[in-house]
Amino acid sequence: MRRFTFHRLWAIVLKEFIQMKRDRVTFAMMVGIPLMQLMLFGFAINADPKHLPTAIRAADQGPFARTFVAALKNSGYFTLVREAATEAEAQQLLQLGDVQFVINIPEDFSRRLLRGEQPTVLIEADASDPAATGPAISAARTLATSVFVRDLPGPLARLRGTDGPVNFQIHAHYNPENITQYNVVPGLMGVVLTMTMVVITALAVTRERERGTMENLLATPVRPAEVMIGKILPYIAVGYIQVTLILIAARFIFGVPMVGNLALVYAVALLFIAANLAVGITFSTLAQNQLQAVQMAFFFFLPSILLSGFMFPFRGMPEWAQWLGSCLPNTHFLRIVRGILLKGNGFAEIAPELWPLLLFLAVAMTVGVKRYRQTLD
Amino acid sequence: MSSLTQDFVIDVTGVTKRFGSKTVVDQVALQVRRGEIYGFLGPNGSGKTTFIRMLCGLLTPDAGSGTCLGYDVRTQQAEIKRHVGYMTQKFSYYEDLTIRENLDFIARVYAVPDRVPAVQHSLERLGLANRSHQLAGQLSGGWKQRLALAACLIHSPQLLLLDEPTAGVDPKARREFWDEIHRLAAEGLTVLITTHYMDEAERCHRLAYLAYGKLLARGTLAEVLRATPLTTWTVSGPGLRALAETLRGRPGVEQVVAFGNTLHISGRDAVTLEATLAAVRVPGHEWVRITAGLEDVFISLMDTAKDNFA
Lengths: 377, 310
Description:
The complex is a heterodimer of chains A (377) and B (310). Chain A is α/β, with parallel strands linked by helices and 377 residues long. Chain A is built from 14 helices and 5 strands. Chain A folds into 2 domains: 52-173, abc type-2 transporter like fold (3-Layer(aba) Sandwich); 180-374, no CATH class. Helix content of chain A is 65%, strand content 8%. Chain B has helices spanning 48-55, 77-83, 99-109, 115-125, 141-153, 171-186, 198-201, 221-227, 240-247, 270-280, 294-309, and strands at residues 8-19, 22-33, 37-41, 63-68, 71-72, 84-87, 159-163, 190-194, 206-211, 214-219, 231-236, 255-259, 262-267, 286-291. In chain B, helix 3 (99-109) crosses helix 4 and helix 3 runs parallel beside helix 5 (141-153). Chain B starts with 7 loop residues before the first strand and ends with a helix. The interface between A and B is medium-sized, with 13 and 20 residues.
């Protein structure tokens, strides 16, 4: 009896398979998560982002300048989307996050080039995410030596100089030292809130159902809205504690600059926390048990961390992945928090990211309340 | 209050509930008087819980009408919830809260006036006072049941709906529980209680028997017994197991049940049953005719219902 027997082992194996077949969500997770990771890591994520939106402010429209701009474009890293007439307009574009770079070609570009005086091209970069700007800037640097090979033939070759005919000056805005933490730590706020808020509410309601306490609750005069809001409120407080902890750590441990208005961060965080709690409530109405609720939360969390621009540059992703990422509240919240803290954005600058967040909240709340009501009768 | 002038605390007819294509409760009519302890019996899955859920406003009946405490069961569910105490089959209070915290929570939900003394009074009444700081999850079955009873009484309901309250509770705790129920009924509380225990059924003022969603019998204990004329014989002696096999399926024999060293044989048709028994009588067996018990009656009812169902 104490020997290891094959038929007892087989009994266990068979039983496990039957249980696996019954638990659809776990099965979906076992198949879905590898597929999702393959898609995300295989196709969506790109550590060498190209086609970054770039604005140009060209004071010199001569043939050398045009060749130079064309060469930048051909490198694949820069996509010219705008022309900025003034310095102020260029700054505005960077501030709003409409462009990643502004390339300034000085008035005397051609003249100085022909004199062999190495004209200076100023590249202003939104360096709040160093990972996004780094490869493009180094590509631009290598370009400088090769760009005018054909345009400066024969005797003009001496103009190419030893270290290139053009001098680059890079202004890394918002994060001049290219410190990764400046970008990651504010972003972490969205990631931490997504993870904890969704899981915690998904569990809070499922637990009532799983333990049978929901039936009791429903037999009392308590209204569905009272249950939902009553469950959400304590976690909003928890979310605010998390926000505060991260802000304190960002300031005093990582030395992240805080240019903007912290009150605005707290105000937007309320929206974001509520959006995630609504997602959690929706999951809890779908899940049969607490394990499933956690699994669903994980399905939501994975893209929120990978496609939101938290881990990898958002602009490096293919269009479909950017589109998917834009549906996630974390994507917009990250931009808002980074914008406020690093760029000093105010309400006007964050407004374009605010409405997707509101839209998401409205949809998630509607679905959550609808689904919750259906479970009553 | 309108219900005070009324004779019946529960008065419903034609109550029906379907889940998909399955009719779980089928045309049930029930009248329960004030201060009455009404026993609700029936096999597992017979629709007892669904019926109770309709009475306390958790489910809306698909058909039928009636009142509970004078409120319409279809439209005034919120009013009903306020005046009914419902004890679920499964323990459904918070295991990670203490006894006092649970009672306090329920008292707040019902907006009980003078909440703190009310909770204290309820703790004392059910003997929970010196355990009030224990977590509900650590209590044994009997104590959990007391907590559940205390919780569904805390808002002074006029009607108690108890769904198998004594399942898994030891005999002593069961008896104390029933003593408490009788005390409450004497104070004017109406109680509808489901159970599988026949001794508990006998402690009810009135009974109803539900099987496959249909109400098969109702009335006082004597009325229910009289309504189903069942003849029961007991036999004792050697070779009972073989005798049981011989008797099963014979004309007139509906139930053959072993009780320790005796066999109970019952059937509705007394004449046919006795003819069959006469054929198998051998010396050494002692045959006695007894009054049929409630359990025999219910099993007989259930078998009949199954016949009708098929």
